[in-house]
Amino acid sequence: MTGPHPAPPEVVEYTPGHLMDVHRPVGADGPAPVVLLWHGRGPDERDVLRPLAREAAGLGLLVLVPDWRSDQEDGGRARLLASFEYARREAPALGGDPARFVLAGWSLGGREAVALATHPDTPEEVRPTAAVGIASAYGRPAVTTGDTPLAHLAERPSPVPVRLVHGTLDDLVPASATRELYSALVQQGSPAHFLELESDHAGVVLTEYDPALGRCRPAEAEHAVRAGRATARVLAEAAAAGPNDRLTPAARSSSAS
User: Fold this and answer.
1) Cβ atoms of 102 and 128 closer than 8 Å
2) pLDDT of 255 over the 70 cut
3) Is residue 116 part of a domain?
């Protein structure tokens, strides 16, 4: 990232006792596009996504990253939906533009983000303007919707543009999982774009897994820095598009820069 660096995130309660990082945009002139970014399976790991969120804030985005837990009895559904409702409701007060609202997620969070953003039962008045799935698999039911995003997107076009990112070196969630969803989107003529990056599961969010810590930490490896910055640009592209913008179907690229 070049230019001014974002300030450290503010921390708010999006529901009593549960926290969300608010990464303020750099260089925003007026209300900024909003990205609600969900972490993966690890419990309350909003800190893992701070490198990516900070990079995206440096591109002029208001990035909101909540804690949630997939190990709860409901699979984390209540917290995910509460963070979504908070972000929609509070975006203007936080300096965001709810007319440019991207729902994004990494790993398990990516399946939930794509599922909720594209589900036919999501009310139009709260539907995000775009979805971004990062290093995710989409062939199992999402807790937010109760059904499988791959299934409903194979049956009907997506109501919003969908951008997908996956690392070709991912040995935790194979890139074929995203290719399968992308193929379904293309077959339905959905507005979609798929970026493959030469990195692994952690690298695409500007982190690397540290066995000693048992969790991800900010990336130092060159491939992860490159890939994470590319993912931040995908978030910015999704957020910059207007609600009526439609990607050309079958857009796909591969990048290591």
Assistant:
1) yes
2) no
3) yes
